[in-house]
Design a protein that fits this description.
With about 230 residues, this protein is an alpha/beta fold. About 25% of the residues lie in helices and about 30% in strands. Heterodimer of HisH and HisF.
Length: about 230
Amino acid sequence: MITIVDYQMGNLRSVQKAIERVGGEAKISSDPVEISAADKLVLPGVGAFGDAMAEIRRRDLAQPIIDFVATGRPFLGICLGLQLLFETGLEHGEHEGLGILKGDVVRFEPPVLNSDSGQPAADSGQPAGPILKVPHMGWNTVTKRSSGPILDDIQDGSHFYFVHSYYVRPTDPDVVALTCDYGHEFCAMVRKGNLLATQFHPEKSQADGLKLLAGFNGLSTDAEVSA
């Protein structure tokens, strides 16, 4: 059974339906006891970092999530559920995250070109518009930076669906499993032992996303995913 954490800031039913589509069983829960006892845990999320952490703390879910990851059972974070794993989120101020991974979460600052000359605005001295819009929204491809369970089924150039204005900057480059490019390279997925988390939405990413969820569903609950 896969437990999906409910803190009122995620597309919970979409994640549940996608897991069921690949043959898994999933329930949605905001009960700290159920979360602590889960076989596998999914932390989804859509919204602002600070609001999400406030809601998680209000519901007494922070420590059960942290403790769950430490047990070695499979864990999957999705979108905001990836970002919350880090120490600090810099969205509308500075907010403390779960601190499971070292690093921070920062806003995209896409490069700009002069709309007439095509030259960088800083060089032309003329008004400019952004090349890329924020949020990063839609389909994009990923590049593999690691291997192992689940990742071995994902090919370079696989397409996933993104919706986000902020991205994670892990302190440890070894946890970066997939990267993506949106004006510059950023971390699209992390992996550390039993912990996996994606910036994209696998539940919205059709065949490649379902393949990832099927791999997560198939992970053993008896041992850590090898590092």
